[in-house]
Design goal:
The protein is α+β, with helices and mostly antiparallel strands and 188 residues long. It has four helices and eight strands; from the N terminus they run αββββαββαββα. It starts with 5 loop residues before the first helix and ends in an 8-residue tail after the last helix. This is C2 domain-containing protein.
Length: 188
């Protein structure tokens, strides 16, 4: 966007090119049964680079047990620069919902957004895939099926430096106040 025009250069600093990334978590199959009692109720968590601010979850499947189905669609907005380089990793984790104890981790899939984009581009920006679940350094039992679409480029206004600074200062103040009272909280 180098034009030499000062007003266009100022505008490029305020805005960035992005794409909407639509992902539909379709189903999983042949999962390890991680419950001793009761039936499995599996949900999926989708994030980028395991960043909590980007995390979205499917509803828990109440009937599929080790073969859950969601057909749940989510939309994320990703900067074009992040799509075109190996820096952003799509992470999908599966969990078995537990009512009284922490949820039980089943496994996950990870794929660079750049690779997903390069696969979908020749097919009009959409694709469907099935991936084996991993767990730790090994392979977990089961597979995850999902489809995804990269939308057209859109222009999104960047958050102001002032808003970014105010958010960081508020987060610091809350954590400092809670730490001085002996309490702790997750970052805002």
């Amino acid at each position: 966007m180098e034009s030499g025009n000062p007003s266009e250069e100022m505008e490029s600093k305020k805005f960035r090119q992005c794409r909407n990334f639509h992902i539909t978590l379709i189903s999983a199959s042949d999962l390890e049964d991680v419950r001793d009692l009761f039936e499995m109720k599996v949900y999926a968590s989708v994030s980028f680079n395991e960043e909590p601010r980007t995390e979205k979850k499917t509803p828990k499947d109440k009937q599929g047990k080790t073969n859950p189905a969601w057909n749940h669609r989510m939309v994320h907005t990703i900067a074009e620069a992040g799509i075109l380089q190996y820096g952003i990793m799509l992470v999908i984790k599966l969990y078995c919902k537990h009512e009284f104890l922490p949820d039980i981790y089943i496994g996950q899939v990870q794929k660079p957004i750049k690779e997903l984009f390069e696969t979908a581009l020749p097919m009009g920006g959409s694709a469907e895939t099935t991936m084996a679940l991993g767990k730790g350094s090994g392979v977990s039992q089961g597979e995850l099926r999902f489809s995804y679409t990269f939308g057209e480029k859109i222009i999104v206004k960047k958050p102001s430096k002032w808003k970014t600074w105010v958010d960081a200062a508020a987060n610091l103040l809350v954590n400092f106040t809670l730490a001085s009272t002996g309490l702790s909280i997750m970052p805002i």
